[in-house]
Design goal:
Elements (H helix, E strand, L loop, with lengths): L3 E12 L2 E13 L4 E5 L6 H8 L7 E6 L2 E2 L5 H10 L1 E5 L10 H11 L6 H10 L15 H13 L5 E5 L7 H18 L2 E5 L3 H4 L4 E6 L2 E7 L1
Parallel strand pairs: 3-8, 3-9, 6-7, 7-8
Antiparallel strand pairs: 1-2, 1-4, 4-5, 9-10
């Protein structure tokens, strides 16, 4: 059973009385421990695909399955449980809370899951991304690359089965980008997490196991990296 499976997924939006097709009959399966990249021009449907894959949005038709469970038709509490416990998210602009330290940002998903004793777990993940020494720094006191490493630690602290990264290196210099891509590669290899990354960078995509090429909401090609 694939960790993530999209079956004939189509997504329509209404905008200015027009029907916009964001995804058109997309099918894709991602296995545990697999790292895939989704590439294509802006507006091709990359972010929509990730939103559907993380149960942040739902298909107009077709089905999305996370670890064997269809996201359609679930109650809000069930969807929240899937997002909190089975999926991790990494974004281009980090989305760290500015008033919380690095370790407090990493702890947050555990608190939302109801855990009360979690400082050690958060520190372990910060050390894994080589940010343990800066655990007490606020986001504005560290670099963009360091903030993204904190964001990866936060995404992984609850040991999700699926990690979704939307343009994770789009706001980074080349050296920081290399570190982030290596961390995502290690996430799949060491933790057995299924990793799906949307990116404009063909160089970054070359580190993944497969490349999914999107064009105008359709899968144009799926090939080995």
């Amino acid at each position: 059973m694939s960790l993530l499976r999209l079956e004939s997924v189509t997504k329509h939006y209404r905008s200015d009385n027009q029907d916009i097709v964001a995804l058109d009959n997309v099918s894709l399966a991602v296995e545990a421990g697999e790292f895939i990249s989704v590439v294509g021009r802006s507006g091709c449907g990359k972010s929509t695909l990730l939103n559907l894959s993380g149960a942040m949005d739902f298909p107009t038709s077709g089905a999305v399955h996370i670890n064997g469970v269809s996201t359609s038709g679930l109650a809000d509490t069930q969807l929240t449980e899937i997002r909190r416990r089975q999926v991790g998210f990494v974004f281009q602009f980090f989305q760290l809370l500015p008033t919380l330290s690095a370790i407090e940002n990493v702890e947050l998903p555990l608190l939302l899951c109801g855990q009360t004793s979690n400082r050690r777990q958060a520190l372990e993940k910060l050390r894994w991304v080589e940010m343990g020494e800066l655990a007490d720094r606020l986001p504005h006191q560290i670099s963009g690359g360091q903030m993204q490493r904190v964001a990866i630690a936060r995404a992984l602290v609850h040991s999700p089965k699926l990690l979704l990264a939307d343009e994770p290196i789009g706001n980074l210099d080349s050296a920081s980008a290399d570190i982030v891509i290596k961390l995502l590669r290690r996430t799949a290899d060491e933790w057995g997490t299924a990793v799906v990354m949307a990116t404009h960078s063909l160089e970054a995509a070359g580190v993944t196991d497969r490349i999914v090429q999107l064009r105008d909401g359709r899968v144009e090609e799926i090939r080995p990296a």
